[in-house]
Amino acid sequence: MGKVDLCLSSEGTEVILATSSDEKHPPENIIDGNPETFWTTTGMFPQEFIICFHKHVRIERLVIQSYFVRALKIEKSTSKEPVDFEQWVERDLVHTEGQLQNEEIVEIQGREEQVK
């Protein structure tokens, strides 16, 4: 059986909070599975969003594609409500002068590894 992308709205995942929204590029674009759509922010810092899976999932691989992001901090929660978050990943991203930033994070035996 192949891996399933659990971070898609088609799998029941929802964006339940976003600190910025644009009607042409809403936060729901984060999880629509379409590489042509995206979430855009106001440019104010920091920006946050919360994705709710509605069931416990094991994240083995996470890919973040962005532009002009200085730092990335990912927290996780195992609560049914969006509370009690704990840090999972935190890193500074390389400035790419308007080029797409690709960050791939792979979890190996309970610890995160960065893959370029």
TrEMBL record:
Superkingdom: Eukaryota
Pfam families found in the cross-reference section: F5_F8_type_C
InterPro entries listed in its UniProt record: FA58C (IPR000421), Galactose-bd-like_sf (IPR008979), IFT25 (IPR033558)
F5/8 type C domain sequence ranges: 18-102
PANTHER family noted in UniProt: INTRAFLAGELLAR TRANSPORT PROTEIN 25 HOMOLOG (PTHR33906)
Protein name: Intraflagellar transport protein 25 homolog isoform X3
Organism: Vicugna pacos (Alpaca)
Gene: IFT25
